[in-house]
Write a structure and sequence with these properties.
Blueprint lengths: L2 H44 L5 E6 L6 H8 L6 H11 L9 E6 L3
Antiparallel strand pairs: 1-2
Helix pairs in contact: 2-3
Length: 106
């Protein structure tokens, strides 16, 4: 006659670990989301791989390559473009937008 309560006890026994697992999953997702946001916001500010930087105001028709070529016309623009892409998150440039452009040490 005790079979019915054992089945009920088993379902309650699994309920608690499922709740804990669900809470851990939600916490992991929230922590990862915060890390992504902080990396995108703070990352470009902390990057010190270049000696100095200059702020450029985007003009109509500018591209990352054209801005990088203005910084140093004699060098390959793509390393600078790669660093600016991190800052702009790969979005379109808007005239009037300010971009911090890394400038290599002389």
């Amino acid at each position: 006659m005790r079979t019915a309560p054992m089945v009920a006890d088993r379902s309650r026994a699994y309920e608690r670990p499922r709740q804990v697992l669900l809470r851990l999953l939600i916490l992991t997702i929230v922590v990862l989301a915060v890390m992504v946001v902080l990396t995108r916001v703070v990352g470009p500010l902390v990057d010190s791989s270049h000696a100095s930087s200059e702020v450029f105001v985007v003009r109509r028709g500018d591209t990352l390559v054209s801005i990088a070529e203005r910084v140093d016309p004699n060098m390959n623009p793509y390393p600078i473009v790669a660093q600016m892409e991190v800052q702009t998150h790969g979005t379109f440039l808007v005239p009037g937008e300010r971009i911090v452009v890394p400038i290599a040490a002389p």
